[in-house]
Amino acid sequence: MNMYEVKPLHLANALSFTLPDQETAGFFRNEKLRTFLDDIESTIKEYDAQPVGPLILKSSLEYKEDDDVIGIDTYIQQADRFVEGVKPPYRMDKTVNIAECLWFHYSGEKMRLLERFFDVRLQAIEKEISLANEIYVFFSSQSSDDDCISVEVFIPICNGNC
Q: What is the pTM of this model?
């Protein structure tokens, strides 16, 4: 039985902020992160727009020439309209479209999400599905005790262009 479905990913009016390298470690424990996330919402509202939908984490890997691998975390919040003139460190994209992704829903302990992610990647390998080195995680909810989350995960499928 598949642990995933194949779905497209479509984002509209996406304001994003990429954390500096040194900030990416320890996503759930990072004290500065709450400030960054509040700033994303405030930036959208500054331009008379409203946040739409859940917060999205795009996590990707970049391979360097010296065989180093760097993790890059970008936080995305969609808005109800396109915001002109957004200043760095923010970026605004009218649309983000990925034709095919492996998609799965997960509700449970935060620490077990990674296990589910690896199970899905293993199934993809077994079925010879090539996946990109990035994932999009939509945070639907988080329990008050911070141990449980509900997320939608999209992993782009490579169709000869990864």
A: 0.86
